[in-house]
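In response to the reviewer comment on reproducibility (Comment 2.3), we provide here a single inverse folding case reported in full, input and output, so that an independent group could reproduce the run without further information from us. The structure tokens appear first.
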């Protein structure tokens, strides 16, 4: 297997994820509608890809894991509702960084929800990440650009935690089968919100908006998921962890350099704290593995 090619696939997927917020802002489409179409188009693309390769979803495996697949799909839809709205209410950088609190929230709740022992070495990283959120949000000097946007971003992180928990409970379902199913469920979860909130609203103000949403569904979701899971299944764990944190870095850079959203010195320090703490938490060896030698 060519690990260099797999590394390129994974990196491309992560870079695509990092530009989602920027393209959503440029689309002018309501956030919940954009999230719904992303889930629907991504699911259809993966199903077509599986069919073209002569495969299909393992219905029996899906049936055995139906409860957790549904919970994961609903959580994905709610994560996108909060995250996409955060992109519009605050800067793309702040929304993305708030969402990346999720791995550290998992550290806090793991003893209760996942029955895993608390790794006290990671607690300072949790504190550092939350300090980073205070810095990037502007709360520390009373200049927060949008409190609601920050809260939406944190809400997205909470629902991301449910995605992590549910996916840990799933077994015997391939990554693409799981993705196709959960993307479809996410779209159905968001549909009632779109029908209620956007009734009578032009979902696509112009042709550019429509093309961007199609791109987000097909390229940034369908293609990106296929590349992401192909690389993840082949690369060493530490490589996956390191490359995965290109996503928030790219989001921040897109926010500052393409969307011209302001980031002061405190914001840059906060960004480093959040991304660094989350990455260190992923790279730190599990205590159980060290104990067992």
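Designed residues, in position order:
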């Amino acid at each position: 297997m060519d690990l260099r090619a797999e590394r390129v696939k994974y990196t491309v997927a992560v870079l695509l994820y990092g530009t989602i917020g920027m393209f959503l802002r440029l689309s002018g489409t309501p956030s919940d509608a954009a999230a719904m179409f992303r889930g629907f188009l991504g699911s259809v693309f993966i199903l077509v890809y599986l069919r073209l390769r002569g495969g299909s979803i393992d219905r029996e495996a899906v049936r055995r894991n139906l409860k957790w697949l549904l919970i994961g799909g609903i959580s994905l839809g709610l994560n996108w509702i909060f995250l996409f709205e955060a992109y519009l209410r605050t800067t793309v950088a702040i929304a993305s960084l708030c969402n990346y609190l999720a791995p550290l929230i998992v550290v806090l709740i793991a003893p209760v929800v996942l029955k895993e022992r608390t790794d006290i070495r990671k607690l300072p990283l949790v504190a550092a990440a939350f300090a980073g959120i205070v810095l990037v949000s502007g709360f520390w000097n009373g200049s927060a650009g949008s409190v609601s946007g920050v809260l939406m971003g944190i809400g997205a992180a909470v629902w991301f935690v449910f995605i992590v928990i549910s996916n840990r409970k799933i077994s015997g379902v391939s990554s693409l089968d799981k993705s196709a199913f959960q993307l479809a469920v996410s779209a159905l979860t968001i549909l009632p919100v779109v029908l209620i909130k956007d009734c009578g609203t032009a979902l696509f103000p112009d042709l550019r908006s429509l093309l961007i949403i199609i791109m987000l569904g097909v390229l940034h979701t369908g293609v990106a998921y296929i590349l992401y899971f192909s690389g993840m299944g082949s690369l060493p764990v530490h490589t996956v962890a390191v490359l995965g944190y290109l996503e928030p870095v790219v989001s921040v850079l897109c926010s500052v350099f393409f969307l011209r959203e302001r980031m002061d010195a405190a914001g840059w320090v906060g960004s480093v704290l959040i991304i660094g703490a989350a990455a260190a938490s992923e790279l730190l060896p599990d205590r159980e593995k060290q104990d067992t030698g």
